[in-house]
Design a protein that fits this description.
By secondary structure, this protein is α/β, with parallel strands linked by helices. The protein contains 14 helices and 20 strands.
Length: 466
């Protein structure tokens, strides 16, 4: 929401806002742009007939006093995604959806378009190098790139956000059950993606990963859908000495896909020079395929795409390097759902097969802290040489969930060499006592381990002392 406020101010709007708590870095950024509210909290005097619109965030409550005042005055109230569409309804809209990978694909497309000099608006759920904000809205750009989140739009509009964007180009990266507090059954969750396909603009295109079993089943059962889906798969690649190389087509000038919908299989009959990229893992090779086909649809040649993607460093907390040495690498990742944990752990282990892997996961979301959902994590960390799982009993209590003992986690994960922590200080002590020679650490969380800032941690002390 604070990114949207900044974007609207930069577009020329007069913007004001309210919140009951404002944390960093939002606070400093709002202050820098002159948008920090004078007083924290709710004040109905701020809501009056001089306002053109009220934009309602997802985390406000339906009984919020300022919202009630706006409703009483009959003001136009938009949800966040509703207003993004309103601002971009005359533009060519690209929406990347899926349970995993959507942030990375969106960031890849943004990175390539920026380096190729293409003007575009965007909305993404993470900070990306080269972009000051996570939202940009302009009068000039003819293209809008949106990350398509399936979570509800607002407390008074429970439609999934990505149902409101009506894309001309759509991507679904994969489906793996999440958000069980909103989608109580897997079938209900899958249905949201089926509905998303019906909301693509006439004449639009839909791409999906044909290596995702759920998507394959979904589109097989859909029959002749509109638009006809195009498929993509893992981009051909090789790894050597801890480095990843994309294997590219000899004919790199193609901008348009073949007429058959199976072109996304990326069957390359001959290869050009391999392109080294600073990202890795099978899921990222699927992500880069999705980004390639989106960029082709937007007029970017293969040659320009590969030249640009070779410098893509990823979005914040997506296999982000915290520190590294000749014998150790410390990663931070946003992975929290079972499918993301499995993919991320396997990606790091595959890149460094000769090094031991310590995988550290925080259970923080509503789903991951629900005892009935824990079994979904079975074997997700099995390839790690040591698996560390942390959860905060106070967070469980705050989310009004039933408390469970560490033994429940041991049974659910079905992983050898697993240690469970409910005290973050004990976890840090464990990490500090490990000899990190020829070992990698992967930290996965959507939270903060009860206030630990791993980005400011003294990692160098761990790599130099054995």
């Amino acid at each position: 929401m604070h990114n949207l406020a900044i974007a609207l101010k930069e577009k020329g709007y007069e913007v004001s806002g309210s919140d009951d708590e404002i944390f960093e870095p939002s606070r400093s950024r709002l202050l820098r742009h002159g948008l920090l509210p004078k007083d924290i909290g709710w004040d109905t005097e701020r809501i009056n007939n001089n306002l053109d619109v009220v934009i309602l965030g997802m985390h406000a409550r339906a009984n919020n006093p300022e919202l009630k005042k706006a409703q009483e005055l009959g003001l136009k109230i938009y949800s966040y995604p509703e207003y993004l569409y309103e601002q971009c309804k005359e533009k060519k809209r690209v929406v990347i959806a899926g349970s995993h990978g959507k942030t990375t694909v969106t960031a890849m497309v943004m990175h390539v378009l920026r380096l190729c000099g293409v003007d575009f608006d965007y909305m993404i759920g993470a900070q990306v190098e080269g972009f000051d904000t996570m939202v940009r809205l302009s009068n000039e750009a003819e293209i809008a790139i949106f990350e398509g989140d399936e979570y509800p739009s607002s407390p008074i509009d429970l439609r999934p956000k990505f149902h409101l964007y009506h894309p001309h180009i759509a991507v679904i990266t994969g489906i793996a059950w999440d958000h069980i507090n909103v989608f109580p059954t897997f079938e209900n969750y899958v249905e949201q993606f089926r509905l998303f396909t019906t909301m693509i603009e006439p004449g639009g295109k839909l791409f999906y990963c044909n290596e995702d079993s759920c998507l394959k089943e979904l589109f097989t059962n859909m029959g002749e859908g509109k638009p006809r889906p195009y498929i993509y798969s893992t981009h051909p690649y090789k790894t050597h000495d801890g480095k990843t190389f994309l294997l590219t087509e000899q004919n790199s000038d193609s901008t348009n896909p073949p007429s058959t919908p199976s072109y996304g299989l990326t069957i390359l009959r001959s290869y050009g020079l391999p392109v080294e990229v600073p990202f890795f893992g099978n899921h990222n090779m699927q992500n880069v395929s999705a980004a390639l086909y989106i960029c082709r649809e937007l007029g970017i040649t293969n040659e320009l795409f590969y030249r640009a993607i070779s410098t893509f460093k990823g979005a914040t907390k997506r296999l982000q390097t915290l520190a590294q040495s000749d014998h150790s690498h410390f990663f931070l990742d946003f992975a929290h759902s079972p499918s993301k944990v499995f993919a991320t752990v396997n990606a790091v282990k595959s890149l460094y097969p000769s090094r031991e892997l310590v995988a550290c996961l925080e259970l923080h979301t509503f789903s991951s802290l629900s005892e009935s959902f824990l079994e979904q994590y079975a074997n997700t960390m099995s390839v790690a040489d040591l698996a560390l799982v942390y959860y905060n009993p106070e967070t469980v209590k705050h989310k009004k969930l039933a408390f469970f003992e560490p033994e429940t986690v041991y049974k659910a994960f079905k992983t050898n060499n697993l240690e469970v922590f409910t005290d973050s200080e004990a976890l840090i002590k464990k990490i500090k006592t490990i000899d990190w020679f020829n070992k990698n650490l992967l930290i996965m969380t959507s939270g903060n381990f009860n206030g630990i800032n791993f980005q400011e941690f003294d990692w160098n002390s761990l790599t130099t002392n054995h």
